[in-house]
Amino acid sequence: MAIAIVDYGMGNLHSVGKAVERLGYEALVTGDRDAILGADGVILPGVGAFGDAMLHLRESGLDAVVKEAAAGPKPLLGICLGMQLLFSSSEEHGEYEGLNILPGQVVRFAPGELKVPHMGWNRLEFLHPENPLFAGLEAGHVYFVHSYHARTEVESDLLAVTDYGHPVTAIVGRGSNFGMQFHPEKSGELGMKLLGNFLALTGSKALVQGDYNQETVYNDDPVQVALSWEKQGGTYVHLVDLDGAKAGHPVNDELIGRIASAVNVPVQVGGGLRTVADVERLLGLGVSRLIIGTAAIEDRTFTEEVLGRYGDKVAIGIDARNGYVATRGWLETSEVQAEVLAKELAAFGAETFIFTDISRDGMMQGPNVEAIVSLAKASGRTVIASGGVSVMDDLLRLSKHAEDGVGGAIVGKALYTGSIDLSEADGRVVKGVNFVNLRDAGDPVELAALYDREGADELVFLDISASVEGRETMEEVVRQTAGEIAIPFTVGGGISKVEDMNRILRAGADKIAVNTAAVLNPQLIADGARRFGSQCIVVAIDAKYNEAWGEWEVYTHGGRKPSGIKALEWVKQAETLGAGEILLTSMDADGTKDGFDLKLTAAVSESIKEQLSLEQVVEHIRWSDGLVPAIVQDAETRQVLMMAYMNRESLKLSLESGETWFWSRSRQELWHKGATSGNVQTITSLKYDCDGDTLLVEVKPNGPACHTGAVTCFHNEIVGLPEQPGDKASIESGATTASSSSEGRFEVLAELESVIAERERERPEGAYTTYLFDKGVDKILKKIGEEASETIIAAKNKDNDELRLEVSDLMYHLLVLLQERKLPLDDIMSELSRRHERPRRD
């Protein structure tokens, strides 16, 4: 049976399906209930917004199907949005109920010093390494792209986290149900291994890397397949009798004879050849060359005899695992080194070796060129490469070593999956200078696979002629590329509607880049962000310096048409509309090899360091029945004055007027603080906490806050509370927290010190200070080093606004360090006073 990939109208279906196939399993993309419930395992992918995804699931009836699958014994995996859907609810664009398979809520990252969306490669920390999902794996980096993250209610459900200012849910699991916040199929080697471990839990079967317990049937008519390869240009047909290799003697003689008679190109056969009679019988069927494998290790007398009798009609097949020869159809690994065997058999007359790196065969990860060349040089004979060939570029790489003895390559799975088409394909990569004089630079699919193997972290495919030619993006190229790579993939060009975005995402892209269409219709950015999430929307900007303006201008249609729009203004607008990323191209620097246009890059970076819009602020706040508590604090004395509630309208009025407005729950109406008494509160700062569920309003009060005439509403002290450890103790007497009596203008430091001490005692979940204490002194010291460096940079740049922020961050982390070392701030202040009072020398 297959692995069912749930098609509910939203999801990176093709790339997930291809990843499953690359790992050797059968993938079935389906929305059929029986197919999903009858599969060996289920994958719920997802790209987009939580609410829209749940709507699609409910309208199609697939929500009940997924729940039914999750209730059964077969493994289920949610990927990215698919993982979030497993939880009880989400606050993305409102309050939405999830599948409730795992208890917990999906919440937005609180913006601040961290960028939202969370986008990039982050390291995993396995919390339960004993889980079979992590079998044989070490923690490493995977690719994240999301604006919302899950909070589990059951601690044991959390299997792995990543560090993004605080621990972020990365992998969850309960029983046979799992979820990954990242895309494993786009997270390189570690991601594919994690996906492979999940697939192994399903018990589904496929023949990969020579495992006889796994098999894939690509076609039930081998004769027609052989004729097809010949028609496409194949110069040799390579047959392996897998049944014969396992049995120890050829089994499929009749089929081999039919293939040899049907084609007009040479046929070579391997598998189970152990006797001279076997060799003579197959040669009599029209086979041109026979491959001796296991017998070359186990029966040297037979091997020497057939080499002496049949010469170049016999090739030696060397299948190696980690440099050692594997025998009996890869079921066993010998103690004989591949290069040693090749040297010995070359001395007996072997002219041709067929070398297979078992770790690469069937996995489409590229051939082990180094090992192939090394074997050819060691033996001094011709070596034909087998295993791992996945794209045309693999063949080109091998062809460069013809002089070293590499005589050809055997292509298998890549032909069946369509990764290599011997009849050639359209669609090329072009490159020019300053967007002109474009030249052909190769096949995009081949280059994508090459970049992936060479260590690229992310790929961007821009169909630069789509807008000019008025056509859609080359979807098939996107589909093929997504099937060949295991890293994130952004696609742009010819995308002018939300439907186009959905089509390309389903074809395998992770993000969508819009350029010309967004300039002509900016609402496209907002519509895309609303449907798929801002993390999926990239605004590509081609900018060229306009001498008359003294700044950069946006160009459209592949850099061919000036738009009359200033680039920096367009960047700000794109961000406001919901773009999660800017893909910036300097037309002045493109292709010149003179380095990045740092001036343009810096200008764009500065232009998006703006305050959040009201709409963005409202979106980030976690409203409860339309309300959020607001704590009002004196900006100068730091005294808490009052607590009241705001709704969306009162928050808007507060921001617009600069004075506090609230919502009266008793009177069910808006009220302007001080409107009748004159005791208005002028807002100096408005913040929300790390959870987004409480506001802090710092004000300059024009009179008392309380209706009783008291300065603060908090004037009724609760007495009789037990004394808390560390309240009055000193470090010398064994206090557990640092203490301070600093007063006056430095009162805020003492207050902050007290809060930090409380955080260390209570360790509230999700607090950044808790995170620092949990990680220990090394993490705290690392953060101090980072903040010190950023302080230096701000000072060197003569940016006092930035310097103010960086010094504040540095002082906060220093106070955390003092608390960790149990050194009170009072001691520091005393030392400073002592130095200040030291008598001067004449």
From TrEMBL:
UniProt record similarity statement: Belongs to the HisA/HisF family.
GO cellular component terms, A-Z: cytoplasm
Keyword Cytoplasm: yes
EC numbers, comma separated: 3.5.1.2, 3.5.4.19, 3.6.1.31, 4.3.2.10
Phosphoribosyl-AMP cyclohydrolase domain: residues covered: 642-715
Intracellular or extracellular location(s): Cytoplasm
Superkingdom of the organism of origin: Eukaryota
Lineage: Eukaryota, Sar, Stramenopiles, Oomycota, Peronosporomycetes
Nucleotide-binding as UniProt keyword: yes
NCBIfam families: 1-(5-phosphoribosyl)-5-[(5-phosphoribosylamino)methylideneamino]imidazole-4-carboxamide isomerase (TIGR00007), histidine_hisI (TIGR03188), IMP_synth_hisH (TIGR01855), PRK00051.1 (NF000768), PRK02759.1 (NF002747)
GO biological process: one example: L-histidine biosynthetic process
Quaternary state and interactors: Heterodimer of HisH and HisF.
Pathway: Amino-acid biosynthesis; L-histidine biosynthesis; L-histidine from 5-phospho-alpha-D-ribose 1-diphosphate: step 3/9; Amino-acid biosynthesis; L-histidine biosynthesis; L-histidine from 5-phospho-alpha-D-ribose 1-diphosphate: step 2/9; Amino-acid biosynthesis; L-histidine biosynthesis; L-histidine from 5-phospho-alpha-D-ribose 1-diphosphate: step 5/9; Amino-acid biosynthesis; L-histidine biosynthesis; L-histidine from 5-phospho-alpha-D-ribose 1-diphosphate: step 4/9
Every Glutamine amidotransferase domain range: 5-199
Protein name: Histidine biosynthesis bifunctional protein HisIE
Molecular function per GO: 1-(5-phosphoribosyl)-5-[(5-phosphoribosylamino)methylideneamino]imidazole-4-carboxamide isomerase activity; ATP binding; glutaminase activity; imidazoleglycerol-phosphate synthase activity; lyase activity; phosphoribosyl-AMP cyclohydrolase activity; phosphoribosyl-ATP diphosphatase activity
Catalytic activity reported: 1-(5-phospho-beta-D-ribosyl)-ATP + H2O = 1-(5-phospho-beta-D-ribosyl)-5'-AMP + diphosphate + H(+); L-glutamine + H2O = L-glutamate + NH4(+); 1-(5-phospho-beta-D-ribosyl)-5-[(5-phospho-beta-D-ribosylamino)methylideneamino]imidazole-4-carboxamide = 5-[(5-phospho-1-deoxy-D-ribulos-1-ylimino)methylamino]-1-(5-phospho-beta-D-ribosyl)imidazole-4-carboxamide; 5-[(5-phospho-1-deoxy-D-ribulos-1-ylimino)methylamino]-1-(5-phospho-beta-D-ribosyl)imidazole-4-carboxamide + L-glutamine = D-erythro-1-(imidazol-4-yl)glycerol 3-phosphate + 5-amino-1-(5-phospho-beta-D-ribosyl)imidazole-4-carboxamide + L-glutamate + H(+)
Keywords recorded for this protein, A-Z: Amino-acid biosynthesis, ATP-binding, Cytoplasm, Glutamine amidotransferase, Histidine biosynthesis, Hydrolase, Isomerase, Lyase, Multifunctional enzyme, Nucleotide-binding
